[in-house]
Design brief:
Number of helices: 24
Number of strands: 5
Distance between the termini: 78 Å
Helix content: 55-70%
Largest sheet: 5 strands, mixed
Low-confidence stretches: none
Mean pLDDT: 90
Strand order of the largest sheet: 2-1-3-5-4
Strand content: under 5%
Shape: globular
């Protein structure tokens, strides 16, 4: 028991007065371990856009050509690239490392805001445990630690949670600052306008839990005073990015709602967020999260209001056809707080009713359980799973610097690898297109290269190089997954390509097209 208490004391001493600097140091170490590629959007909707803005060459996807995306998030990374350019460091390894320093700042902000939010709502002891949950979380370490818009949205949302006037169980209001909370909420909405769903739920819940005369008028006035400058800022940022006036939320609405084409990227079951997103986000913490919400209903110390906001947001996010678990990243601080409430209750010498109890649980046992079940998979996801698609870009970048790589083609499902943000060389590159139609009426007749290549790969390769005046120039290097190599190897040899290098990518992949190593073919003399 003494040994257990000693460990508890050391952990609590470390977390008792956390500083942002300490958290940033931990996340910088975390950032250096990220050597893999999980979500295409972590580069294609951020780094690739920023790279083209600063260096003048690169590739932007169809969303940017049709004004569906806002430039606020890529602009953050454009600042990083611009600093490297000004300092003359963009031709060093920093071109791929520096963006993750900014990601570390974002993740550390989430950690610190989670602590402050939990301290306001549930007290210092719970806040320490909430911070611990955030630090060891597999999702934080391997998911939020990516240059995704969802990560920046989570940081601003967590900051807004800190200042939001949550209702206590005794119907008093925890001290906060609604104007400050709304400013951070507005920033989250600038990054991802769909973040407004969370704040719509929070405002509705505040009216329900704290009905006060004149409150609606005050909130409307504050929302207008903060919202108008926020929308104006968004318009100006997109004016700079697009070079013309654009309002991406409207274009996003037309494509995803009016035309219903969001499902082009995959249609999700209505319960996706319940049966997939929540277990992925919280892994082995999920039972503690659920237990913590239940405890909040039995305790006079913690409110369920944040849980109600989260449930409402999940319900509304579940109404769309296409869902991904990362869309719920902004709800992570709420989950960590309730997991901490559970752990604190389980390891306390008193029950929620105030009676003495003997607990078989200890902070040491729970901490060890959470560490093993979160850090181990996070290390695997950060250093092993799908690392070949990053390693191949480093290999090609070295070849581009020496002049041996002059033109690259990717015969892979689209957006399988990072692009110019990792190559950082102004040479021709192309990949198989997979752009959706812009109108639902064009679905039945829509053509996309990736689909044709998957169905008839050998015929596609022959046709692609048959006429260089109308088709793509024959690249010096081709990149494929091993799963496709077995189907087109002979054809590639016939048109003059030989295997040049291969890189381990992953032990498993749910998409059979992406299985096996990443293989590089180099153009040599044709055999015939």
């Amino acid at each position: 028991m003494a040994r257990t208490r000693s460990l508890q004391a050391r952990v609590f001493d470390m977390l008792q007065t956390p500083t942002f600097g300490m958290l940033l140091a931990l996340r910088l170490v975390n950032a250096m371990l990220v050597q893999t590629y999980i979500h295409p959007d972590e580069t294609w909707q951020s780094l690739e856009v920023a790279h083209k803005l600063v260096f003048g060459y690169g590739f932007v996807t169809w969303e940017w050509r049709h004004g569906l995306r806002g430039f606020a998030h890529p602009m953050l990374f454009a600042c990083v690239y611009k600093a490297l350019q000004v300092l003359g460091l963009d031709d060093t390894r920093l071109i791929t490392v520096a963006p993750y320093v900014l990601v570390a700042v974002i993740a550390a902000s989430v950690d610190y805001a989670t602590y402050c939010f939990a301290r306001r709502v549930a007290g210092t002891d719970v806040a320490r445990l909430a911070l611990f949950c955030s630090l060891v979380s597999c999702t934080m370490s391997s998911g939020v630690m990516r240059p995704l818009a969802n990560s920046a949205e989570t940081a601003f949302t967590a900051a807004a949670f800190v200042y939001w006037p949550w209702t206590r169980t005794d119907r008093t209001t925890a001290r906060g600052s609604l104007p400050t909370a709304l400013v951070f909420a507005a920033m989250a909405c600038i990054i991802r306008p769909t973040s407004g769903i969370i704040w719509m739920c929070a405002i509705v819940m505040m009216f329900v839990r704290q009905p006060r005369l004149g409150r609606a008028t005050r909130i409307l006035a504050l929302t207008t005073a903060i919202g108008v400058p926020a929308i104006s800022s968004m318009l100006l940022i997109d004016r700079v990015g697009y070079g013309m006036w654009k309002f991406p939320p409207y274009a996003f609405y037309l494509f995803n709602v009016r035309e219903g084409l969001g499902t082009w990227f995959g249609e999700s079951h209505p319960l996706y967020h319940v049966v997939v997103s929540m277990p992925v986000l919280f892994t082995t913490m999920l039972l503690f999260v659920v237990h913590g919400v239940w405890i909040a209903g039995q305790s006079a110390r913690v409110t369920r209001e944040p849980a109600y906001v989260a449930v409402g947001a999940i319900a509304l996010f579940s109404l769309v056809g296409h869902m991904e678990y990362r869309f719920l990243y902004p709800l992570l601080p709420i989950g960590f707080m309730y997991a901490a409430v559970s752990i604190h209750t389980l390891t306390s010498k008193q029950s929620v009713t105030g009676k003495s109890k003997h607990s078989p649980w200890s902070v040491r046992r729970i901490a060890a359980f959470l560490l093993v079940t979160n850090i181990v998979p996070a290390l695997y996801l950060n250093t092993v799973h799908q690392r070949g698609v990053v390693d191949v870009m480093s290999y090609l970048r070295q070849g581009a610097q020496t002049g041996s790589v002059t033109n690259i083609g990717f015969l892979m499902p689209c957006h399988s690898t990072p692009f110019y943000s990792h190559l950082h060389a102004n040479i021709p590159m192309w990949f198989l297109s997979c752009e959706p139609p812009l109108l639902a009426s064009g679905l039945d007749t829509h053509y996309w290269e990736a689909g044709e290549f998957e169905q008839r790969p050998n015929e596609f390769v022959h046709a692609m190089f048959a006429n260089t005046s109308t088709h793509r120039e024959k690249p010096s290097h081709l990149v494929l997954y091993d799963a496709m190599v077995v189907r087109v190897q002979n054809t590639l040899n016939e048109v003059g390509y030989v295997e040049d290098a291969r890189f381990f990518n992953t032990h498993f992949n749910g998409d059979e097209r992406r299985r096996g190593d990443v293989v590089v073919y180099r153009y040599s003399n044709p055999l015939v």
